[in-house]
């Protein structure tokens, strides 16, 4: 499942132009299909191969539990992105290859059970996203690009040092998670410092408050279609990384830093929602909305409470669905009105279906009960309340703020009076229906019937939290 | 302790052959230059280099030595020392040198004519320089090391000045003057080391430095002074800050194929020498490590931040070469086993990626000044293959996986980290961010659409240069995906015990 998209990305380079769309669609669908097969089989077993024995680097992967859920969502959204890119972008060959190359990186991140391998995939997912920005970006992309790269790579390198530190100081023979877990560092300042270094990388990706500045620029400068943004919602990686590697490898440090980190997370959620309220540009708004969601995820993960962590993983997985679809919806609005400004006005009168689906997706995003987002956010608040009630309350305000910014912006674009002389706006056509309705359908399905996903995640979360000695 | 020559037989001379093959190529180029075209000479020299490489591989694990001496130790056991040793580290580093040289020759096939350096003398000088470089890698005592260094440096000065232009003359003169200062300091340092230990041979020096009894207390000061002088002499040659000032001028002033040679082969050879001296002979000597640590830190900071400010792509690569020196020097701070392995791996990767990047510059530049970074905009739409290759080289230089530069950097970090230089590895990580940005900028500019007319040399893509680029890119990718192909060879700790010939 991991390398199929990368293989596809290379195949696309030699596929004749006519068949590129179909080829990319087929390969991304196949990847998703493999995902289903693995799910049916109850997760793939661990695969361990010695990669660089001299350095103790192994190629160990496993897709099960949380990582499988995240990988499937990624595969699904890649499929949707391919579907949309094929129609929207003229001559989409390069974009399609990049989407597929990135899919490999992302799935690889979730599958990796070796720290160096994780790092390798981590950087691998980055390159295509940088290229997307470089090739399809807007005027100010160079600044956005440098900012994005500087933040992420700075984090990664600290992570690399921390990785070396964990292995060397812990005395583990390899970088494989299984080995590292048996050689956890004793509690103390060393562990805390390494955790901070590791966390820096994750906080950039997550992103957590002081390290989030790259995010809005990144989304604003990307191509209008919103495809890079779908793939660019790689901030899933941060929450996942803290969960899988952070908690397991630095149990004492994560307990020690819990109040600070939860505070930061709650602040991030609230602050981002506040800024989102003032945005004039749909993509910036979505970026801040995503940031706010990630604050929630971080709150859940850092609280180290079982309910909250499950909620965080749930939100992490499904947030990508509706946020991604919303980015695509923004792309569709832009295609029709030529602008991604919030104050367009009156789109609803002519494009009812687009408006309706967008509204539904927004409702999913602001965690209306019955949608997947609600399950996640509610569990996080429930869990976090048991740890620090006040922080949970503070973060809870965010949900109100979210409703405020989402509905205001929606009202401006879709309901407000149309500006005189506006061009006629076409409603959804062809695959566009699918592109918006499928993610929505899944968000509703898992909002109503969350058992399959929860059953998948619960054991994994429990296993990780045992590292803390039964919190 | 008396040292007596034990004589050298034909079997032992086998150790010499890889060097002799290259020297033969140099001599033939000097003579045949009157009758044969330069292209023919270049093909012949590539052949000699390949023969030398194959011969090196057959010498693997044999540990042959030439010009051996028997030293009577105090406990009566004789210690066999050699002035020239074809042990495994020498062979590994020698192969790296050959890779860089072959790539230089391939590139020069296309660009030497345009750069107005297409004389037989170019080939002759280049081969002499390679001879010197190999001598350094194979050296068993300080004198052979020095001879190798001088042969290499002198040829290098000529190469840098070969082009008939003011820029080349200026860069050559600068190179010569500063190189001569470096050599002088190095020789002075060697004299000090001899004064302190009474020997020039690495094995003997390391023996006396290691055992306190072999060294009179008052000699320790002289030893420390000598080690520092040797370090500074080498620092000039590999461009450690603050002895780096000549590098950007020389690398950007010399014709590009020669910058390629100077920034890869010469650096590899000097690092080979440093590895012999500091991880071998003077490994137990006090003082040098802390100084090297500070020099490394300064190199990392200044090299990376200066590269950030460059507008000219070739100059940027020159500064990035300075920055990479810092990473390479970090490996020297590791224990011989981890550091030597890390250094050898990194040097090969560094040679491949730097040479490929400069080969592309050589092929596409309009003049020997190189290209402005802004000229790279839209390169992908004009020369897609070269742009992708250059992007891979830049990604590798920046240390992004899955390319080999990542493992190089990783190994260097690890070597320093495990030997206790934690702050230095953190500093290296921080300065790498600057590196990532300046590699990223040209890398991304290439992929941005651009409608202005191209600024490249129209007839740049020729088979030999493309072959060199393919060699570099394929090597970097292969070593990145399967680092074990090369690292499996170099990582054996046993071979690094032999660095000093003990």
Task: Describe what you observe in this structure.
The complex is a heterodimer of chains A (471) and B (502). By secondary structure, chain A is mainly alpha-helical. Chain A is built from 21 helices and two strands. A two-stranded antiparallel ribbon of chain A has the order 1-2. In chain A, helix 2 (20-40) runs parallel beside helix 4 and helix 13 runs parallel beside helix 19. Chain A is globular, with a radius of gyration of 21 Å. Chain A starts with a helix and ends in a 6-residue tail after the last helix. Chain B is mainly alpha-helical and 502 residues long. In chain B, 72% of the residues lie in helices and 4% in strands. Chain B contains 21 helices and three strands. A three-stranded antiparallel sheet of chain B has the order 1-2-3. In chain B, strand 2 (64-72) and strand 3 form a beta hairpin. Chain B is globular. The chains are: A mainly alpha (471), B mainly alpha (502). The interface between A and B is medium-sized, with 33 and 34 residues.
């Amino acid at each position: 499942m991991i390398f199929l998209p990368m293989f596809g990305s290379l195949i696309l380079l030699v596929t004749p132009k006519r068949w590129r769309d179909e080829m990319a669609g087929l390969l991304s669908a196949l990847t998703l299909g493999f995902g289903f097969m693995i799910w049916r089989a109850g997760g793939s077993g661990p695969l361990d191969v010695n990669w660089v024995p001299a350095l103790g680097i192994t190629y160990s992967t496993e897709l099960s539990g949380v990582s499988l859920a995240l990988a499937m969502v990624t595969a699904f959204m890649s499929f949707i992105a391919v579907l949309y890119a094929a129609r929207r972008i003229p001559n989409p060959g390069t974009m399609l290859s990049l989407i597929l190359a990135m899919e490999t990186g992302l799935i690889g991140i979730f599958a990796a059970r070796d720290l160096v391998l994780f790092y390798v995939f981590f950087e691998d997912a980055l390159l295509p996203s940088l290229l997307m920005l470089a090739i399809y970006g807007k005027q100010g992309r160079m600044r956005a690009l440098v900012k994005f790269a500087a933040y992420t790579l700075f984090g990664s390198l600290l992570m690399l040092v921390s990785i070396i530190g964990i292995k060397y100081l812990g005395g583990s023979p390899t970088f494989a998670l299984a080995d590292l877990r048996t050689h956890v560092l004793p509690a103390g300042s060393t562990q805390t410092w390494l955790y901070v270094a590791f966390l820096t990388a994750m906080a950039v990706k997550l992103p957590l408050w002081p390290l989030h500045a790259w995010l809005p620029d990144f989304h604003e400068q990307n191509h209008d279609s919103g495809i890079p943004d779908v793939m660019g919602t790689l901030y899933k990686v941060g929450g996942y990384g803290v969960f899988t590697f952070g908690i397991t490898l630095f149990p004492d440090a994560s307990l020690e830093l819990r109040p600070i980190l939860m505070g930061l997370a709650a602040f991030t959620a609230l602050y981002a929602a506040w800024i989102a309220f003032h945005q004039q540009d749909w993509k910036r708004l979505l970026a801040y909305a995503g940031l706010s969601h990630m604050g929630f995820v971080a709150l859940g993960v850092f609280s180290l409470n079982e309910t909250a962590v499950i909620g965080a993983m749930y939100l992490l997985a499904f947030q990508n669905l509706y946020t991604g679809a919303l980015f695509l919806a923004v792309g569709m609005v832009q295609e029709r009105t030529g602008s991604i400004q919030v104050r367009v006005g009156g789109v609803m009168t002519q494009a009812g279906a687009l408006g309706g689906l967008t509204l539904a997706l927004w409702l999913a995003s602001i965690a209306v009960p019955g949608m997947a987002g609600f399950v996640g956010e509610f569990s996080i608040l429930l869990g976090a309340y048991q740890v620090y009630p006040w922080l949970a309350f503070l973060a809870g305000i965010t949900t109100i703020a979210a409703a405020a910014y989402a509905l205001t912006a929606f009202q401006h674009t879709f309901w407000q009076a149309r500006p005189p002389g506006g061009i006629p706006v076409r409603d959804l056509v062809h695959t566009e229906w699918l592109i918006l309705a499928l993610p929505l359908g899944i968000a509703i399905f898992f909002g109503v019937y969350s058992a399959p996903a929860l059953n998948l995640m619960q054991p994994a979360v429990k296993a990780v939290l045992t590292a803390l000695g039964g919190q | 302790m008396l040292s007596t020559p034990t004589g050298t037989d034909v079997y032992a001379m086998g150790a010499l052959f890889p060097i002799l093959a290259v020297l033969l190529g140099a001599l033939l180029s000097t003579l045949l230059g009157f009758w044969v075209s330069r292209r023919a000479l270049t093909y012949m020299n590539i052949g000699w280099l390949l023969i030398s490489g194959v011969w090196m591989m057959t010498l693997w694990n044999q540990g042959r030595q030439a010009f051996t001496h028997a030293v009577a130790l105090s406990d009566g056991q004789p210690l066999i020392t050699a002035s020239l040793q074809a042990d495994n580290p020498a062979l590994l580093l020698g192969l790296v040198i050959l890779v860089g040289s072959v790539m230089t020759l391939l590139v020069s096939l296309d660009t030497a004519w345009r750069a107005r350096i297409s004389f037989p003398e170019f080939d002759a000088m280049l081969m002499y320089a390679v001879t010197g470089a190999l001598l350094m890698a194979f050296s068993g005592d300080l004198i052979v090391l020095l001879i190798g260094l001088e042969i290499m440096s002198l040829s290098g000065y000529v190469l840098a000045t070969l082009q008939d232009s003011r820029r080349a003359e200026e860069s050559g003169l600068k190179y010569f003057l500063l190189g001569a200062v470096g050599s002088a300091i190095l020789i002075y340092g060697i004299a000090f080391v001899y004064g302190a230990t009474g020997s020039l041979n690495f094995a003997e020096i390391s023996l006396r430095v290691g055992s306190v009894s072999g060294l009179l207390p008052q000699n320790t000061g002289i030893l420390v002074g000598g080690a520092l002088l040797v370090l500074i002499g080498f620092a000039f040659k590999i461009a450690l800050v603050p002895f780096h000032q000549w590098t950007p001028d020389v690398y950007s002033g010399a014709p590009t194929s020669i910058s390629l040679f100077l920034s890869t082969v010469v650096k590899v050879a000097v690092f080979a020498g440093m590895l012999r001296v500091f991880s071998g002979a003077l490994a137990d000597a006090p003082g040098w490590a802390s100084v090297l640590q500070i020099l490394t830190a300064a190199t990392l900071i200044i090299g990376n931040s200066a590269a950030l400010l460059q507008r000219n792509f070739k100059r940027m690569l020159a500064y990035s070469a300075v920055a990479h020196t810092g990473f390479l020097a970090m490996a020297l701070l590791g224990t011989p086993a981890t550091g030597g392995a890390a250094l050898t791996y990194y040097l090969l990767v560094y040679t491949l990626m730097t040479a490929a990047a400069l080969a592309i510059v050589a092929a596409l530049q309009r003049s020997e000044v190189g290209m402005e970074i802004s000229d790279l905009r839209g390169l992908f739409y004009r020369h897609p293959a070269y742009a992708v290759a250059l992007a891979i080289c830049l990604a590798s230089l920046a240390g992004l996986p899955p390319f080999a530069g990542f493992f190089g950097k990783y190994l260097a970090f690890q070597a320093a980290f495990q030997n206790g230089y934690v702050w230095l590895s953190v500093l290296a990580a921080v300065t790498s961010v600057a590196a990532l940005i300046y590699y990223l900028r040209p890398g991304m500019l290439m992929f941005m659409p651009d409608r202005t007319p191209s600024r490249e040399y129209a007839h740049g893509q020729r088979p030999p240069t493309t072959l060199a680029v393919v060699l570099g890119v394929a090597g970097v990718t292969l070593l990145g995906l399967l680092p074990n192909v090369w690292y499996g060879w170099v990582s054996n700790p046993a071979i690094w015990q032999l660095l000093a010939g003990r």
